[in-house]
Amino acid sequence: MIFDMEYETMPREALESIQLKRLQTTLSRVYATVPFYRKKFDEAGLLPGDVKTLDDLRRLPFTTKQDLRDNYPFGMFAVPMENVVRIHASSGTTGKPTVVGYTARDINTWAELIARCLAAAGASRGDIIHNAYGYGLFTGGLGIHYGAEKLGASVIPVSGGNTKRQVIIMKDFGPTILTSTPSYALHLAEAAEEEGVSFRDLKFKSGIFGAEPWSEDMRTELQNKLGLKAMDIYGLSEIIGPGVAMECHEAQKGLHIYEDHFIPEIIDPRTGEVLPHGETGELVITTITKEAFPVIRYRTRDVTSLNPDPCVCGRTHYRMDKISGRTDDMLIIRGVNVFPSQIESVLMKIEGVEPHYQLIVDREDKLDTLTVVVEVSEGVFSDEVKGLQQFSTTIGNEIKDYLGISAKVRLAEPKSIERSQGKAARVIDNRKI
Amino acid sequence: MKVEQISVFIENKAGRLAEVTGTLAKAGVNLRALSLADTTDFGVLRLIVDNNKKAEEALKDAGFTVRITHVVAVEVDDRPGGLHFILQALTEAGINVEYMYAFVQQSGDKAVMIFRFDQLEAAIAVLEKSNVTVINGSKLYTM
Lengths: 433, 143
Fold this sequence. Notes:
The complex is a heterodimer.
Chain A: H1 5-8, H2 12-33, H3 35-43, H4 65-70, E1 86-89, E2 99-102, H5 104-120, E3 128-131, H6 139-151, E4 154-156, H7 163-173, E5 177-180, H8 182-194, E6 206-209, H9 216-226, E7 229-236, E8 241-247, E9 255-257, E10 262-267, E11 281-287, E12 298-304, E13 306-307, E14 319-320, E15 325-326, E16 331-333, E17 336-338, H10 340-349, E18 357-364, E19 367-375, H11 385-403, E20 407-412, E21 427-429
Parallel strand pairs in A: 3-4, 3-5, 5-6, 6-7, 18-21, 19-20
Antiparallel strand pairs in A: 1-2, 7-8, 8-9, 9-14, 10-11, 11-12, 12-15, 13-14, 16-17, 18-19
Helix pairs in contact in A: 2-3, 5-6, 7-8, 8-9, 10-11
Chain B: E1 3-11, H1 16-26, E2 31-38, E3 42-49, H2 52-61, E4 66-76, H3 82-92, E5 97-102, E6 111-117, H4 120-129, E7 134-135, H5 137-141
Antiparallel strand pairs in B: 1-3, 1-4, 2-3, 4-6, 4-7, 5-6
């Protein structure tokens, strides 16, 4: 089913003319209301009026995550706080999280986008949605929630965690659509099995999986183990949250980007040059309908390509490939975005931690695990095991407090962690995406 | 009356213990007693040796994390209830034993135990009041 027949199947020419109009409006607005953009445009010698075609977009400067941090917390908001009805933020950090705001209209736009996503996965009124994305500052839970209500489906706001209770709910309430991170879905399947419940006996027909990149192999595994159609959803809080792009169940090949709200570009991450369709590079997104938090040419750091070919489902919006990687060192652990530098600053605040550490990311029992290896210096070493255990507990607690992720801590002998100039050696990612 | 003990941090992987003993052998250090506390990831090796300074330097040079701590060496009657008598006295005084292990050599007809206490001086006072022999360093290292 197509939720918004008019916009989702709009002929390209009409769509592009709407895009240009909306882009121009957005540019004028951010120039007038956000000092950051005014300064950037002035430096580039451009006025919003200079953008006369969609191709002119590439003349505008990029916006980066650092820009958002520099304007923490509300510096990038394009409306006064009286008009902001919701605030979300990226996973807590020792530095500054990324804070995003929504007007009432933005919330409505977002709900419509998610309703489109759910419909694209085959959901409609009458479906029961088991929403296991986390509710809170993270955009996943509430994002899906409002969209499900907009669609008219019944949503179970189960959020993350308490897996056993989730199994009971899945068994007794008979949800038909599962929304979660792909790794949590597999974890749920295993937990269900332990409780003697087979996912194949449940009523799920589709699963909408996002917040972390996943592969075609993972799709096969999800579909086999869970007995449902596994669909990929894409989004990021800086743009709006989930609902930027979504696969259709007809093709399950590429995610339609909702181009009446977002303009995608693929660039060469080194030169910033826009790449032609089909070529792989970094995804850059401009929002053209957001009110509270518009972003111009935001560098997502996600690696993909754009496919302009017509799709069997009838949607005219271009499709992006499944995300194949990142252009920075950001790790996504159980759906939480973590930069190694954030973990480093937590570690450096703890007395006795040496500046040599290693981060090992694994996938055990379908769930991502982070192990932080820390060298034991003379300062923290004691002849008693409990002293060392206390030390590793402290490290684990601090990481949990600041970053919201659980980490195992492994104490290592001095000089046992490889010394290297590069950052990469600090992170060992054993997961296969 | 306290004696010195050398503790070494060891990762739980094959061959590490042998590297410690190899380092000490090369330095000509003789082991008098040892105990190993282990967890899943790491162990703490505690050693009584005949030459603490030499042992410490050799281990540090070999890149180990080393720490000197103070423990108490106690003569224990070699008969049923011998150790219990000592622990009883400590319990009554409210002194906690962090850990303990046996010394290899006997002192005459008595066994020797190494104790690590949370309150070292108080423990020694209790032991001496109970007529338990606390062995000093110079005697212990050369036993």
